[in-house]
Amino acid sequence: MAGRQRAVATLPTLMRALKTNINSPSSKLPNTPLPSLRRAFSLYDQINLIDNVPEDQLRFQGYTDTGFTVTGKNYEGSVLCIGNLILSWTPKTFADITADSLSIFQTVRPIPEILIIGCGRYIQPVNPELRQFIRSTGMKLEAIDSKNAASTYNILNEEGRIVAAALLPYGVTS
Q: Any idea where this protein resides (predicted)?
Protein backbone atom coordinates (compact mmCIF):
# COMPACT_ATOMS: atom_id res chain seq x y z
CA MET A 1 0.00 0.00 0.00
CA ALA A 2 2.88 2.37 0.75
CA GLY A 3 4.26 1.87 -2.76
CA ARG A 4 0.94 2.84 -4.29
CA GLN A 5 0.74 6.05 -2.21
CA ARG A 6 4.27 6.98 -3.26
CA ALA A 7 3.38 6.44 -6.93
CA VAL A 8 0.23 8.55 -6.62
CA ALA A 9 2.21 11.31 -4.87
CA THR A 10 4.90 11.45 -7.58
CA LEU A 11 2.42 11.37 -10.49
CA PRO A 12 1.76 15.16 -10.58
CA THR A 13 5.50 15.87 -10.55
CA LEU A 14 6.06 13.42 -13.37
CA MET A 15 3.26 14.94 -15.47
CA ARG A 16 4.67 18.49 -15.03
CA ALA A 17 8.11 17.30 -16.08
CA LEU A 18 6.72 15.64 -19.22
CA LYS A 19 4.70 18.73 -20.20
CA THR A 20 7.76 20.95 -19.73
CA ASN A 21 9.96 18.72 -21.91
CA ILE A 22 7.36 18.46 -24.67
CA ASN A 23 6.85 22.22 -24.88
CA SER A 24 10.54 23.19 -24.67
CA PRO A 25 12.17 24.29 -27.95
CA SER A 26 15.00 21.76 -27.61
CA SER A 27 12.60 18.82 -27.66
CA LYS A 28 10.98 19.69 -31.00
CA LEU A 29 11.60 17.10 -33.69
CA PRO A 30 12.29 18.28 -37.21
CA ASN A 31 9.12 18.37 -39.30
CA THR A 32 10.07 15.75 -41.87
CA PRO A 33 7.55 13.48 -43.53
CA LEU A 34 7.65 9.81 -42.68
CA PRO A 35 8.69 7.48 -45.48
CA SER A 36 5.87 5.65 -47.20
CA LEU A 37 5.58 2.14 -45.85
CA ARG A 38 3.29 1.19 -48.70
CA ARG A 39 6.18 0.93 -51.15
CA ALA A 40 8.55 -0.61 -48.62
CA PHE A 41 6.21 -3.50 -47.80
CA SER A 42 4.54 -4.02 -51.17
CA LEU A 43 5.19 -7.37 -52.81
CA TYR A 44 3.47 -6.33 -56.02
CA ASP A 45 6.75 -5.63 -57.81
CA GLN A 46 8.30 -8.89 -56.62
CA ILE A 47 5.44 -11.33 -57.24
CA ASN A 48 3.30 -11.39 -60.34
CA LEU A 49 1.02 -14.40 -60.17
CA ILE A 50 -0.56 -13.81 -63.56
CA ASP A 51 2.64 -14.07 -65.59
CA ASN A 52 4.30 -16.81 -63.52
CA VAL A 53 1.68 -19.56 -63.84
CA PRO A 54 3.18 -22.96 -64.74
CA GLU A 55 2.12 -24.24 -68.16
CA ASP A 56 0.49 -27.39 -66.76
CA GLN A 57 -1.68 -25.44 -64.31
CA LEU A 58 -5.34 -24.77 -65.13
CA ARG A 59 -6.30 -21.14 -65.37
CA PHE A 60 -9.71 -19.72 -66.22
CA GLN A 61 -9.11 -17.02 -68.80
CA GLY A 62 -12.64 -16.15 -69.82
CA TYR A 63 -16.28 -17.08 -69.74
CA THR A 64 -19.38 -16.76 -71.88
CA ASP A 65 -23.03 -17.40 -71.13
CA THR A 66 -22.54 -21.00 -72.30
CA GLY A 67 -19.04 -21.99 -71.21
CA PHE A 68 -15.49 -21.14 -70.19
CA THR A 69 -12.03 -20.63 -71.64
CA VAL A 70 -9.52 -22.57 -69.59
CA THR A 71 -5.80 -22.51 -70.38
CA GLY A 72 -6.47 -21.51 -73.98
CA LYS A 73 -9.23 -24.06 -74.69
CA ASN A 74 -12.97 -23.44 -74.89
CA TYR A 75 -15.31 -25.66 -72.88
CA GLU A 76 -19.06 -25.56 -73.47
CA GLY A 77 -21.43 -26.28 -70.60
CA SER A 78 -20.67 -26.98 -66.96
CA VAL A 79 -17.17 -27.96 -65.86
CA LEU A 80 -15.69 -29.67 -62.84
CA CYS A 81 -12.08 -28.81 -61.94
CA ILE A 82 -10.11 -30.77 -59.39
CA GLY A 83 -6.57 -29.52 -58.92
CA ASN A 84 -5.28 -29.31 -62.49
CA LEU A 85 -7.82 -31.71 -64.00
CA ILE A 86 -10.88 -30.43 -65.88
CA LEU A 87 -13.94 -32.53 -66.69
CA SER A 88 -17.21 -31.92 -68.45
CA TRP A 89 -19.96 -31.93 -65.81
CA THR A 90 -23.62 -32.91 -66.29
CA PRO A 91 -25.66 -30.36 -64.24
CA LYS A 92 -27.38 -27.75 -66.42
CA THR A 93 -29.07 -25.77 -63.63
CA PHE A 94 -28.34 -25.15 -59.97
CA ALA A 95 -31.15 -27.54 -58.98
CA ASP A 96 -29.26 -30.32 -60.83
CA ILE A 97 -26.32 -30.07 -58.43
CA THR A 98 -26.76 -32.97 -56.04
CA ALA A 99 -24.63 -35.27 -53.92
CA ASP A 100 -24.82 -37.69 -56.85
CA SER A 101 -23.36 -35.13 -59.28
CA LEU A 102 -20.49 -34.53 -56.84
CA SER A 103 -19.94 -38.18 -55.88
CA ILE A 104 -16.45 -38.11 -57.43
CA PHE A 105 -15.29 -36.37 -54.24
CA GLN A 106 -15.88 -39.58 -52.29
CA THR A 107 -12.99 -41.19 -54.17
CA VAL A 108 -10.65 -38.32 -55.12
CA ARG A 109 -7.39 -38.15 -53.16
CA PRO A 110 -5.99 -35.89 -51.92
CA ILE A 111 -9.26 -34.33 -50.85
CA PRO A 112 -9.49 -30.67 -51.91
CA GLU A 113 -9.63 -28.30 -48.97
CA ILE A 114 -12.40 -26.27 -50.58
CA LEU A 115 -15.07 -26.77 -53.22
CA ILE A 116 -16.13 -23.63 -55.05
CA ILE A 117 -19.55 -23.94 -56.64
CA GLY A 118 -20.22 -21.49 -59.46
CA CYS A 119 -23.99 -21.01 -59.37
CA GLY A 120 -24.29 -19.32 -62.76
CA ARG A 121 -25.13 -15.62 -62.96
CA TYR A 122 -26.51 -15.32 -59.43
CA ILE A 123 -25.56 -16.74 -56.05
CA GLN A 124 -27.93 -19.48 -54.92
CA PRO A 125 -28.45 -20.95 -51.44
CA VAL A 126 -27.08 -24.48 -51.10
CA ASN A 127 -29.59 -26.94 -49.66
CA PRO A 128 -28.65 -28.45 -46.28
CA GLU A 129 -28.38 -32.03 -47.61
CA LEU A 130 -25.83 -31.02 -50.25
CA ARG A 131 -23.93 -28.89 -47.74
CA GLN A 132 -23.81 -31.87 -45.34
CA PHE A 133 -22.56 -34.17 -48.11
CA ILE A 134 -19.75 -31.77 -48.98
CA ARG A 135 -18.77 -31.47 -45.32
CA SER A 136 -18.77 -35.26 -44.97
CA THR A 137 -16.05 -35.45 -47.64
CA GLY A 138 -13.84 -33.12 -45.58
CA MET A 139 -14.15 -30.08 -47.86
CA LYS A 140 -15.24 -26.55 -47.11
CA LEU A 141 -17.84 -24.99 -49.41
CA GLU A 142 -18.07 -21.63 -51.14
CA ALA A 143 -21.08 -21.00 -53.40
CA ILE A 144 -20.80 -17.83 -55.52
CA ASP A 145 -21.59 -16.67 -59.05
CA SER A 146 -19.58 -18.46 -61.74
CA LYS A 147 -17.51 -15.43 -62.78
CA ASN A 148 -16.17 -14.92 -59.25
CA ALA A 149 -15.90 -18.68 -58.69
CA ALA A 150 -13.53 -18.96 -61.66
CA SER A 151 -11.40 -16.08 -60.33
CA THR A 152 -11.33 -17.55 -56.83
CA TYR A 153 -10.29 -20.92 -58.26
CA ASN A 154 -7.42 -19.25 -60.14
CA ILE A 155 -6.14 -17.47 -57.06
CA LEU A 156 -6.29 -20.50 -54.77
CA ASN A 157 -4.80 -22.80 -57.41
CA GLU A 158 -1.95 -20.36 -58.05
CA GLU A 159 -1.24 -20.32 -54.31
CA GLY A 160 -0.65 -24.06 -54.57
CA ARG A 161 -3.71 -25.00 -52.53
CA ILE A 162 -5.69 -28.13 -53.33
CA VAL A 163 -8.94 -26.70 -54.62
CA ALA A 164 -11.92 -27.89 -56.65
CA ALA A 165 -14.51 -25.96 -58.64
CA ALA A 166 -17.89 -27.07 -59.95
CA LEU A 167 -19.05 -24.35 -62.32
CA LEU A 168 -22.27 -23.80 -64.20
CA PRO A 169 -22.00 -21.49 -67.23
CA TYR A 170 -22.46 -17.80 -66.39
CA GLY A 171 -25.68 -17.59 -68.43
CA VAL A 172 -27.50 -19.98 -66.08
CA THR A 173 -29.96 -18.00 -63.97
CA SER A 174 -31.81 -20.67 -61.98
A: Mitochondrion
